[in-house]
Amino acid sequence: MQNAKANTATATAQVTAIENLIAGLQVQVQETRAAAEKSASELEVAQQEFDDATRRAKDIQAQADASKATADAATKQAGQLAAQLYRTGGTDLSVNLFLEGEGDGADADLLLAKLGNMSKLVERSSDVYESAQSATNNAQSLGDQAKVAQAERETLRVAAEAALATAQAAAEAAANALADSEAKSVELEQQLKFMRDAQATTTAGYEAGVAERARIEAARVAAAEEAVRVAAAAAAAARAGSGGSGGSGGSGGSVSMTGWAVPAGGRITGGYGPRAVICNGGDCSGSFHYATDLGTGCGAPIYAAHAGVVTWAGRLGTYGNFVKISHGDNVSTGYAHIRNGGYNVSVGQSVSAGQVIASSGDTGAANGCHLHFEVWIGGNRINPVPFMADRGASLG
């Protein structure tokens, strides 16, 4: 450093090298962020295809079961017809009918009627067997289609899990690169100022910056602790006001007797099932809504529905800012459209039921501030309303 200050040419060269290094670190951060965004988008597409394939397989299997029932009914009817033919004597029904009418001319009309009925019975027998065969073949075909759809669903499930792992790894790499580059940038900027003969001013400013950063961090931690304390007090007040009943009655953050909590206050504004496509800022949702929307208003608190570990906290395609929590036993919950800067948790953090994890916004494919709430069983997103109601935390 002293030699650099004494030699202008050396100092200029070192300054240029430092500035180039800072620029390279910034490019690296941009590239890793872009990789994380791309992996997150691939994950969302794979999950959408997986859920659609699951519904298709169920529909095809239902058709196969219906055709099998038709075939069974037709076969039973054919059997009953065969039994009726056997009861006529087991030989030639026409001969039996003729012998019954022989010797009595007055019964000629009756004989003809019986022969006509016999002819219709035989004709119906042929139709029944043909229908049974056709229905059986249709059931076999639909069953084969169901098996193909099941195999497609399994392939998509594996693809979704692989995309998730890739997205998580990319996001973690981006976060680490960002933290390293920011730390290195601060260090290099201080060195740069020092090399320009501003050691005293730089040292004082650096120390002041460290103190300010510590103060801001302390204030952030205090604010987060206060938010948790307020949420816990509100939950306790809600429980006390309801007389200790198991249901939450739609009160956001209230923990039921089963350990589950309503993830946000507000009425249901969008249900699980088919819906019109929603686009916002270039992001468009799918045509099937695998969640329940709660109208929270902007900046409203979002609560963990159950105790667990945060497995995702970042941008995720049309979800916008998104948090996912694993609760064990193959059960997870998801919280989408969080406002920018609205995270209260990070990946790997353990949370409790009713804890404030974020605040509501309209990021991603959203046309207003609300919470998009999902429940996952294994790899499938199910209807959150009956699931939460069964656990005493009704959404509406």
Automatic annotation (TrEMBL):
Q: What is the originating organism of this protein?
A: Cryobacterium lyxosi
Q: What top-level branch of life does the organism fall under?
A: Bacteria
SUPFAM superfamilies under this entry?
Duplicated hybrid motif
Q: Which UniProt keywords apply?
A: Coiled coil
**M23ase beta-sheet core domain boundaries:** 288-384
Task: Specify whether Ribonucleoprotein is a keyword of the entry.
Answer: no
Q: What is the protein's name according to its record?
A: M23 family metallopeptidase
Q: Which residues form a coiled coil?
A: 29-63, 132-198
The record's GO molecular-function terms, alphabetically, read: metalloendopeptidase activity
A Pfam family hit? Peptidase_M23
